[in-house]
Amino acid sequence: MRKLVYILFYLLPLFNVAQNLSKEDLIIIDSIKVELNSTNNDSVKVLLYGDWDNIVYYNNPIQGIELNQKIKSICEQNLNNSNLSKGQKIFFQESLANSHNNLGLYYSDQGKIEEAVEQHFTGLKISELINDSLGKANAYNNIGNLYADLENYDEALSFYDKSFKIKKMLDDKKGMSSYYTNVGNIFSSLGQDDKALDYYKTGLSIDIEIEDRMGESVTLHNIGGIYASQNKTQFAKEKFLLSLKIAEDLDIIERQSLTLNSLALLELKLKNYSAAYNYAAQSYKLAKEIGLIYELMDAADILYEVYFFNKEYKKAIEKLEEYILLNDSLTKTENQSSIIKENFRHEYEKQKAIDDKEHEKQIVIEQEAKKQQQVITYATAAGLGLVAIFLIFVFNRLQVTKKQKLIIEKQKKSVELANHQLEEKNQEILDSINYAKRIQNAILPPNKVVKEFLPNSFILYKPKDIVAGDFYWMESLVPTGNKKDTAILFAAADCTGHGVPGAMVSVVCNNGLNRSVREYGLTDPGEILNKTREIVIAEFEKSEEEVKDGMDIALCSLKGNTLHYAGANNPLWIVREGELLETKANKQPIGQFDNPEPYKTHTIELQKGDSIYIFSDGYVDQFGGEKGKKFKAKAFRELLLSIQETPMEEQRTIIDNAFENWRGNLEQIDDVCVIGVRI
Fold this sequence. Notes:
alpha+beta, Serine Threonine Protein Phosphatase 5, Tetratricopeptide repeat, Phosphatase 2c, domain 1, 5-stranded antiparallel sheet
């Protein structure tokens, strides 16, 4: 039994148990939850739910379905709003089509083929309505996969070809790679192994070129399947293990389970029952955790063979019964009928919509002719009646208007009084926040001091609200009294949240940095962060409630041409001779954290012309552009590399303008702090 893997297209800006997520994933999800609670913009909510869904796709399908249902609900509610702009309408239509397609993938993974078919065709109909080429291409590909699973290869190839034509037109190399993999699967199923290998190898070369590790894992697995069918067991095992290694690196449970089954089958064929059991047992456990029907069924079948060989007949019967129950739930005949019926309904509805429009035009013409005749017949009589009714109506309205005028005058005075009270209250709140801004500005180093110690530098500081959770910090150290020995400490910090809550946290964290240097006399960035974490946690532990707030930070110490750096989640970038060098931070915040480690200090010898950049995540996380996506770190790197011939103050202006142009009309989602220093 050879299990082929078809490439699916997951549509949102990709990827039953939280314990399979990495700590970094959990931190990102927590950040998404904070952003969801702080925004009322439905477009931003759709994008955030999409990012969350990408993280849990392979590890938590139940939550993935819930997230796509939320996206679907938000889009449907907004599409009922007649005041949407054209751009907003297209965004919600595309997102709605994508959510249907994603739900189809989830249901397909769970063996719910009929539900999967309905979702994919619904998404396809919306993509066709708005002429979304990419949406149509991905829907065609996924419907083709359903036909391929049901061994209706002619229909599968038809849908794959439709998808490939669009992908080629869009120069979508990932999409073209998936075409070669999926068509290779069909030739493999038909026993044409040499032809299948040619398609697989073409797809694999594209995967390697575009660094698509997921696609590479899928194609290696399928090549391994060909070698296994040809009894080239060593080659097969080599490909399966490479595929499994990538799946483990990417932490994709579904791919791990599938490939472990393939390795188990290979060992079973070689009568290595112990190895077969180990692989199958691992696969069974993973499939059981996240509800993968097909993988669970294959693992149960393999375990039955192993138990039977070992004369553990009771366990063998249990696995055989489980296999039969799972197999019965995936009746192919009913599923085949469902797809054909849905496809026919889709084509029929397209034609019916055309016919209905023509019929409606004819009815309108006939109705207009009848209306004209009725107008001529009754116009004279109706006119006299209307005059009489109008006179009575005018007299009545004069009486009513007098009464309404008195009521309106009274209500107007009440509203004006309430508005005045509300304005006073709002002004009091605004005055308090503005005063808090003055206090916060007082703890930031003045521009004059910054330029004194870092003359060739800039600071881009853009709070989301009046006050901010981001701040920049600087301290000069002259240990010998000689200015030549001066070490300059400077940092870009990002505290939990923004606005008033973020500002309050920033005061605590700023105080922790000052005490670490001034009170405890620390100069090493790693030791400063260790002590700051200790101070911040001690401050928050005074509260009766549990406080998990804290700070991400990049902290540098510059003395001559020697730079010492330590970071909590925020990295250091150095641009040198057209190349960007990144020094990664410790993946832990300044605050409460499970199993905290000491912060590491990195030492870098700088060269003349090097440019140093530290920043918070508000810049790269900003939504914008034509598709409302995040700016991302890659685009920020490219921007910095492109402006290295520009003076630092001009760099600040360019970086600021790039941010505002990307943001467009969308709201700023977080505080922004970027520091640049040239040696």
